[in-house]
Task: inverse folding
DNA sequence: TTTTTGAATTTGGTATACCAAAAATCGTTG
DNA sequence: CAACGATTTTTGGTATACCAAATTCAAAAA
């Protein structure tokens, strides 16, 4: 059995629907209706909505229906700024704290990506890529960093996915990930920082571009 | 009118009781009993408990009563590490983004502390000190940073309060805050980083000391 | 036709009832 | 007397009922 609480299951389902676009921004999430639709009562549905609100996916309004959030470009950009800062901090700390076994595991992930980059499902490869970064955060051996990083990565999932589809480039990803692993092996903090910078430096601009483009398309079909 | 929801009010009351030590770590927070005691039903009490769980003050256990968290030294230390990193990032960004008016307001806070340091209630002065740092985070003009900083400051409230009581030293606090303001005025990122480092560099060690000392005292009265 | 108003409906907030799992209690048995 | 086990109690999880605020919409008046 999955050992996941009912509110978490509901939250996961709603999260999927929101990220996949089935529930576009602005849609109201009514406790009663959604609960009935999923065959549960309002209590766990209510709790699930709170979870998503905490994640920033829905907005709670006093005495009104919660609605699916429409993150502004600024919000996304702020999140990316913090994400990058956390990864830099992770890299520095990981140089000091990561075990050899952890670095080996990270290298194995890199190797897996290298071998399967062209053949595997793009979505799987994207998940692996996210996993690489999540592992790096955990290698800081600072649970707060790992947790914050995980949360931000989750919130940025959709934006990063859209941005990644454009820059799908084996050389770039593999080489840059490789230089991160090398820096960790050498316990070279400056090199690690530089490698993160090189890898994520364009992320903010990329995401801004793809979101602006999407907003434009949305206006066109209006 | 306060316009604060009932669960938030309940959470605030419980938070006070926990931070003040009225509910020591390990105490179980029973939905039914606590709700009855405060004259509300289980539903908002339940929600309040989730809020505190999210803040890390209580631990949710599957099919068990939530209990007041006993943060380990490691957890506190991890949080301090991230807090310092966020303040450094804030200072850098504030050098670029803060308005002159914001810097003036920060300087006013500093001036207030300077004039009232000895006469005011230590708790008030501590709150003002926290407000100084919260303002700095907001001056990054990055809402994610400001929000994370606020959350961490809240979680570390008790530990910082205990640590601050020892190092209550007018010179130190006023001068160091002053150098932060000066760095911001000059838009000097390096100086701002150095000022934050000088001000918070010992925080981790101080908190570790005071917590270790407290744990020792707890054992003695056992 | 437009505006206003008030009643019906919708919706989140709160209280309560019910259930199942886990603890605790207590009696039984070796 | 100790160890085990059944039963009672406690407790969180879920469902449902009720309420009040807010919205909506229609009817009536200007």
Result:
């Amino acid at each position: 059995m999955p050992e996941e609480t009912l509110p978490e299951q509901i939250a996961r389902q709603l999260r999927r629907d929101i990220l996949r676009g089935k529930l576009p921004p602005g849609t109201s999430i009514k406790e009663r209706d959604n609960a009935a639709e999923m065959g549960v009562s309002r209590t766990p549905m209510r709790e699930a909505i709170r979870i998503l609100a905490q994640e920033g996916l829905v907005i709670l309004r006093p005495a009104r229906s919660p609605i699916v959030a429409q993150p502004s470009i600024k919000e996304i950009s702020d999140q990316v700024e913090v994400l990058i800062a956390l990864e830099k901090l992770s890299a520095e700390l990981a140089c000091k704290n990561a075990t050899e076994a952890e670095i080996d595991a990270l290298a194995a992930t890199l190797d897996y990506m290298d071998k399967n980059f062209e053949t595997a499902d793009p979505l799987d490869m994207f998940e692996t890529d996210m996993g690489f970064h999540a592992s790096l955060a955990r290698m800081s051996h600072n649970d707060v960093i790992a947790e914050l990083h995980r949360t931000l990565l989750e919130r940025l999932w959709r934006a990063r996915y859209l941005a990644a589809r454009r820059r799908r480039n084996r050389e770039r990803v593999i080489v840059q990930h490789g230089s991160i692993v090398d820096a960790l092996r050498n316990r070279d903090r400056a090199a690690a920082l530089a490698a993160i910078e090189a890898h994520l430096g364009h992320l903010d601009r990329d995401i801004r571009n793809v979101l602006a483009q999407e907003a434009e398309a949305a206006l066109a079909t209006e």
Summary: The radius of gyration of chain A is 19 Å. Chain A has two domains: 6-68, 73-220. Residues 30-32, 42, 46, 62-66 of chain A lie near DNA strand C (CB under 10 Å from a C1').
